[in-house]
Write a structure and sequence with these properties.
CATH topology of the largest domain in chain A: MetI-like fold
Oligomer: heterodimer
Helix content of chain B: over 70%
Structural class of chain B: mainly alpha
Helix content of chain A: over 70%
Number of helices of chain B: 14
Structural class of chain A: mainly alpha
Largest sheet of chain A: none
Number of strands of chain A: 0
Order of helices and strands of chain A: HHHHHHHHHHHHHHH
Largest interface: A-B, 99 and 99 residues
CATH architecture of the largest domain in chain A: Orthogonal Bundle
Largest sheet of chain B: none
Order of helices and strands of chain B: HHHHHHHHHHHHHH
Strand content of chain B: under 5%
Radius of gyration of chain A: 25 Å
Chain lengths: 294, 288
Amino acid sequence: MKIKSTLDVKIFNTISYSVVGFFGIITLLPFVILLSGSFTSEDSILQNGYSIFPKDFSFEAYKLVFREPDAILNAYIVTLSVTILGTILALFFSAMAAYVLYRKEVKYRNKMSFFLYFTTLFNGGLASFYVIINNTLHLDNTFLILVLVHMFSVIHVLILRSFMQGSLHDSLLESAKIDGAGDFEMFLRIVLPLSKPALATIGLFTALGYWNDWWTPMLFIENEKLYPMQYVLFRVMSTAEMTSAILNTSYTVELPKESLKLALTVVSTGPIILAYPLAQRYFVQGLMIGAVKG
Amino acid sequence: MFLPIVIYFLIFAYLPMTGIVLAFKEYNYQGGIWGSPWAGWSNFEYFFKSGKAWIVTKNTVAYNVVFLALYTFFSIAVAIFIAEMRGKWFKKTAQSFMLLPYFISWVIVGAFVYNLFNYEFGVVNSVIEWFGGDPVDIYGTPSYWYFLLPFFYLWKWVGFGSILYLAAIMGIDQECYEAAIMDGATIFQKIYYITLPLLMPTMVILVLLALGRVMRGEFEMFYQLIGNNAMLLDSTDIVDTLVFRSLVGMPDFGLASSAGFYQSVLCFVIILAANGAVKLYNKDYSLF
């Protein structure tokens, strides 16, 4: 049966398509301008400003970025290793905690949840966090601190727990127990594999947090070898230290600052945009799981 | 198996809570938190007398309330629009575009914003000049930012928010709609009498979670978009940017720790109050 469009549906559709369409264009536009600007020559930017299509096509900025690739490459490696290591550890331990909270045999489950939950209600503030990290634990200027600061989120643990409650049957674990499986074995061989959709989503959230982090290095890292991508980008954006940040040369010729900044932005955003279509599939799926209140 | 996470939270969340006494100390590096001499209320006196306290409180609360209201409204609107759409291709494409900003960092948004609005060759000024107008000094004029900040907040988050609400709409029993159509309801009536009421629980939870963060403004956005721009600070400084600036560069632990303490306590009180209010209204909606 074909649903016939009545007047109210027509009005509604006109509104919804134009609003959503407009919003879609608005979100995309800056990306296009950025990409176009990075391929435009510096002179053209300074004279004509930015545009949607590059007016005076030029690879100059990219050539400069990759002239001395060491700093950029190093930042990439830091970002990648922090993201991968941090995400894997965070997922594993979060799932473990969620598993404990999910098992009904565990006494004091509610108290344990509250132990985690309380940290979202009250915290010591940035100043004391800063002093504890730097002065008490002496973790400043280490690779470890980049991994640790964003490791766990209470909400993620609770989402994982709700997922397990919703999709794992008690009888499954019981039968495994009868077959002689230990708690940890059950976790590794039953719970983890069956939680894949939720893990994929939480993993994506966590990875995104690591990838986009710039303030942990800003607060705690002084060693240039440990600068991740976003922080390098931030330094280039906010200061004129372009040369020391990415070009290890005493380059005295006028640098194409604006297009160089854009090219660097494109280079640092590239991977996440490329991974985006793949990620989006899991993401939308996973949010559906998480949003249903458990 | 719960142990790793307990240790982590003890060190990274509970240990810093003890550091809150820092607000009552005259911090020096040798003494650390416990060895530094007590300062009584002098840090707070300094914070409140500097005039900063009122400015940052006002900005933090005002901006966040506006953000939250607009974000909730637009997320729900977009979610309803998308849910009612028939064209699959359009739906998918628009959704992909809208989610894109969620994936990039505020550093990059900061770069966008700078390229759009800077005085000499920003896109906006290029367009204005092209039409023969005079360029506008956006980075020097606070009043523009009352609109720009909410705009970019929405730009970055509405795509994500609409998916949350869309998920809730998908969970609504289709039979309700079918029955309504049988009775001859228009699409607007369907939305008003079915979708919106059934979205309420999701909305209350999300708003409640956000209310708990009302004193923790969107720090990354403010810092990346405004930075240390002195001309804009009075109208855009929030507690988090104040604390952050007090720590980076020339640390001012007195100001940072007293402002942070003030923030933590207010946050705690607001969460308890909001949750209590919702509990009075409907017990099932509350967080704890």
